[in-house]
Amino acid sequence: MADRKSALAKALEARKRTLHEFPAEKFIGAGGREFQGIKVYAPLKSDEVQARLDADRWVKDEYKGGDDELRLDARTVFLLHRLCRDFDDPENFPAFPTPAWMIANLKNDELDCLLRCVAAVKHAESPLEKDLGDELVDAFVAKAADHYGSSAANFVFTNCDRSWLEDYAIAVSKKLHDLRNQPEPEPEAEPEEPASEAT
Amino acid sequence: MIKPPADITPAKLFRLLCRVPRPVVPIVARFAFMPEQALHCRAMHPLEWAEWEDAGDDLETVVLQHALCDEMGQPLLDRESVFLLTDSERETVFAELVSALNKIGPGYQRPEAFRCDVDAWHTALEKGAAANVSILLSLGTAYEGAADRYTATPERYFGIDRRELLDGHWMAYRAARDVIEKHQKRRR
User: Fold this and answer.
1) For residue B165, what are the domain limits?
2) CB contact under 8 A, B87 and A8
3) Coil, strand, or helix at residue A81?
4) B81-113 confidence digits (pLDDT tens)
5) A9 and chain B: CB distance < 8 Å anywhere?
6) N or C end of chain B: which has fewer CB within 10 A?
């Protein structure tokens, strides 16, 4: 089965995941261990699926089923546990001992901070063009207009993050404003007829 | 509801849907870990769409697994490989695939966000069929029995197994049949 994989699938399996480094001196780890920093992976689909399965199982065991909100919260922490890695040996150890430890010991703002790190990693690894040139704005305008009225229009912006969309909206507003305030072209003056000679 | 693409003429759209084994079009996105690999999108079979419900996978996984292909229409990623893509890679390529699928892969039954305006597609494909006379004559006459009580046999025209026919093939066939029937009625 393995030899039937495409070259792309093989390259994907062989690729080394990039670790992104963030300062995290204020975090206190298990046993009062101080953090030098934290390393974070970009989330793969497999991370999400595994975190979801583990979190649902954990909620079921610990809270006799739990509710949807509890499951969603737990999934986020389980995903963070997979993505946040130990500073010195990131490939072998997570930054925090277990997801249950994170739930018991980390404050909400600390979890928020880790989530922001993951968002920054996703942004950094996004294949989307980050510089908003005139050409790119026009391309997105044309693409959205092409699909106007169908649900496909929504997919045009699927992979754009919030800050990019803000910049895009500003760029489009500026274009629209300039277009509306363009001075009307002056009508061409008709050539004067030569004055008829008085007879 | 997905309407027929405005940027493709009915004549070209009809020819596109008649491609066998499936229509394939290039997409712009590239993966940074293998930028030399050109990515393409192929129309999906109804049973592949159904995996979304049957296997309980999310739509992104199903589309990436079945629609992403090379220029020969060979799928590039199996289910396990799709799970190794990052969020942003998945989202970018998925968006491109959806955009392409809305042009080359219309269907009778689709998940809510992909539902097609079947009547609008039929109207466009009738125009397309009428503009491709030689295909129309072969495809529109692929049936057995009397003209008013016939068994459709589009697989004879397409040269593939009947169960491999895509919804797009059936749509092109029905449009061709209707054009022929209308023409015959006018002559009577």
Assistant:
1) 118-187
2) no
3) helix
4) 999 998 888 888 998 899 899 999 999 988 777
5) yes
6) C
Distance between CA B123 and CA A71 in Å, rounded?
Answer: 48
Distance from CA of A24 to the nearest CA of B (A): 24
Query: Phi-psi region for residue B137, left (φ > 0), alpha (ψ -120 to 50) or beta?
Result: alpha
Contact B84 A44 (CB under 8 A): yes
Q: What CATH topology corresponds to A16-125?
A: rbstp2171 (3.30.2220)
Compute φ and ψ for B75, nearest 5 degrees. Answer: -60, 145
Please give the Cα distance from B162 to B148 (Å, whole number): 22
Q: Per the confidence metrics, is the pTM higher than 0.80?
A: no
Quick check: B133 pLDDT over 90?
Answer: yes
Residues of chain A contacting residue B30, judged by C-beta atoms under 8 Å apart: 127
**Chain B interface disruption, residue of A130, A140, A155, most B CBs within 10 A:** A155
- Which of B7, B32, B76 is facing A8, going by the closest CB pair? B76
Put simply, the answer to whether A125 touches B86 (Cβ < 8 Å) is: yes
Domain end, chosen from B79, B104, B129, is at: B104
Residue A81 has pLDDT above 70, yes or no: yes
CB B167 within 8 A of CB B107: yes
Quote ipTM for the complex.
0.79
